[in-house]
Amino acid sequence: IGNSLYDEQGAKIVNDLLEKAKKNNVQIHLPVDFVTAEKFDEHAAVGAADIESGIPDGWMGLDVGPKSQALFAEPIKRAKIIVWNGPAGVFEFENFSKGTKSLMDNVVEATTRGATTIIGGGDTATCCAKWKTEDKVSHVSTGGGASLELLEGKVLPGVAALSPAP
C-alpha cells in the first residue's frame, strides 16, 4: 500500500470479515485499481496502480481507479437499498475525486430507478453538497457514526433522552 494511510487495528480483522462474508454468501466489492500520488497534496504528481503491481513505496492511494469505478457500478445498479458511508477517494482534490463522483452518479441513478439510497456521514454528505445531489437521493445524514449505530439497532443517547420514561 506504499505510504497510504490505513487503520492498523481495522486491518487486523479484514481477513476474518472476508471469510465471514464468504461463509454467508455475501459479496464484498473491493477496488482493483487506484489513482496514486507522490504526496497528500492537490497538486501532487498523479500515478496509477493496481492489485498486481501494488502501490509503490513513497506513493499513496488517493482514489479508486477507472476499472474499480466500472466494477462498483454493477452492484449499485442491482441494489434496492444502498447505505453509503465514506467517499472512495480524496474528493476535495480534483485529481482524486473521480471515484467518489462516479459512485455518486451511480447512486443518484439508482435512486431514479426506485432504490432507497441513504447517505450517512459528514464526508459523504459533503460530497452531496459539492455535487448538489442532496435532493437526488432518498436521505442524507450528517451523523456518520450515529447513522451506523442506528442501523445496528443501538440506542442513541439523543433519542433516548427524548423518549418517554418506561
What does this 3D model show about the protein?
With 166 residues, the chain is α/β, with parallel strands linked by helices. The protein has one domain: Rossmann fold (3-Layer(aba) Sandwich). Helix content is 39%, strand content 16%. It has seven helices and six strands, in the order ααβββαβαβαβαα. It has helices at 8-11, 14-23, 66-78, 98-112, 122-130, 144-151, 157-162; strands spanning 33-37, 46-50, 60-64, 81-84, 116-120, 139-141. The strands form two sheets. A three-stranded antiparallel β-sheet has the order 2-1-3. It has a three-stranded parallel β-sheet with strand order 4-5-6. α3 (66-78) packs parallel to α4. The termini are far apart. The model has no long low-confidence stretch (mean pLDDT 94).
What are the defining features of this structure?
single chain; 166 residues; alpha/beta; Rossmann fold; three-stranded antiparallel β-sheet; three-stranded parallel β-sheet; 6 strands; 39% helix; globular; Phosphoglycerate_kinase_sf; Phosphoglycerate_kinase_N; magnesium; phosphoglycerate kinase
